[in-house]
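#structure-requests
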Amino acid sequence: MAQPSSKVNGVDNTFRRKWDRDEYLERARKREEEEDGNFKAKAKVPAVQRKPLKHRDYEVDLVSRLGKTQVVTPVAPLSQQAGYYCSVCECVVKDSANYLDHINGKKHQRALGMSMRVERASLEQVQQRFESLKKRKVVSSFTEQDLDDRILKQQQEEEERKRQRRERKKEKKKEKALEEDLDDCDQDVAAMMGFGGFGSSKK
């Protein structure tokens, strides 16, 4: 084996890179200028403004399909599969609790164009709300009387229905008694004439 010479002239074996500080300072300055220009351009474009959260203007239907059976096929469209279908997000949720979580969640609200922030009410809005609630309370005192009238009317209708049912039962009992009397007469006549019966299936 040949032994390496201990003296090597003119070879850089340190593998260290030499940096030109001026060149890299110039590159960093250019990059910062470009980033500042891009940031200013982005700042000019307004961010997406979403509306604040608001009350639902529809009733959530959770019970219309309760207790019903449905044939589920794997090739059926999403809207006809088992569970609750969200037409906004185009997904199916398997139970009502998860469906409520979904429609109150961030993804669904964003799809509707709303942020998860609530609009801050001003003093005038709060005062108007109090006024409307006071007016509703005054109006509700009139509706209590209406409610009593409606309850009374329902009770009268229920009593009328019960009376009609009792009369129908009485009429059915009378008809049954007449039929039994006729059957008894038929049997007596048949016995007098020597027949076993007139062939009726009634006993």
